[in-house]
Amino acid sequence: MGGVTATGTKLTRPRSAGAWAAPAQARVKRIRDRLREVYGVPLMAPHEHPIAELILTVLSQSTNDRNRDVAFLRLRTAMPTWEQVRDAPLGQVEEAIRPGGISKVKSARIQAILRAISDDAREPGREPGRLSLDWLPRVELAEAREYLLTLPGVGRKTAACVLLFAYGLRDVPVDTHVSRVGGRLGLLRGGAPFEELHDAMLALTPPRGELELHVNLLRHGRRTCHARRPACRECALARMCPSRRLFD
Ligand code: SF4
To answer: What is the CATH number of the domain that holds 158?
Structure first.
């Protein structure tokens, strides 16, 4: 099995390279079902706030969820509209998000993203200066993704977060946990660049299973399949994991 994805990434390597091959759908389903037994099916309705999701994702870089959320709340309290955040002196934004770390870089990135959204005249009838990405779910998914990737510093993971969490569209963010667990389970090619990992995750994820597979792989990475010392002896997926022996 294998082939080329919609975005052109080749997903398989010749077996003679002694390497990875894309998993069969039946195997993906077995893993999905086992994760479901352990973690359940996540229930998160799309929140329809794409700009908030973008900013949250910028704030999440190099920090934990708690600090990210504190920074986000402080920003929203200090400047309740995204237009205010865009137009504020940089130092005020930096101060508001300080608890999230590397606030100098993040504040500049946030304002650059908001300005780029302002410059886009795609939404007919939009008030000049008003920020909106409400048109995203009304265009083809590939167009929406491509647009997000033109925003400053926005890569595949951030674009996928916006498409999936804001609108429930078909994309799967591959963060460090998902790539590590997916690689160990043989779902993803270990060491592959993130562009390829995103294409591969999309190709293997059953339609309408995007949120579930993302969230449950992430939970498994946080709770059991740790980066340094995965708890293989307690792992519910141990019998189907080709990497288990590496850590015994
Ligand atoms: S068996 Fe070990 S390496 Fe494999 S998924 Fe479980 S914790 Fe991770």
So the answer is: 1.10.340.30
